[in-house]
Amino acid sequence: MFKKAHWGSKTKKRKTALPMVSKVCSTCAFWVGSRETKPNGFIEIHPYSKGECQGGRYKHLEMAALATCDTWEPWAAMNNYRGEQLAQGAGY
Ligand code: SF4
Q1: Could you report the per-residue pLDDT of 19-59, keeping only the tens digit for each?
Q2: Bridge partners of residue 12, in order along the sequence
Q3: Residues with a CB atom less than 6 Å from ligand 1
Q4: Residue nearest to atom 1 of ligand 1 (CA)
């Protein structure tokens, strides 16, 4: 028998840092969910959070932060971050 997973209140509040280069819903231009950019090239999300896909393959569906599809497009905030890095001579 499998034990039922218990997600305590501390687990629900835990956030995950995810590299902006990850091609998942939470770094996609079409995803509307809770996410926050960090100055080190990461975004902070809750790994179990969901948001609405407002374009692309799963338009109007609720998508998990770590889901993905073949119509992923980079979030504008990530472009700004890369632009800042290029301006500072990071060269990528
Ligand atoms: S389902 Fe695809 S298009 Fe929609 S938010 Fe996720 S990666 Fe972006």
Answers
A1: 888 899 999 999 999 999 887 888 999 989 999 999 989 99
A2: none
A3: 25, 28, 30-31, 53, 55-58, 63, 67-69, 71-72
A4: 58
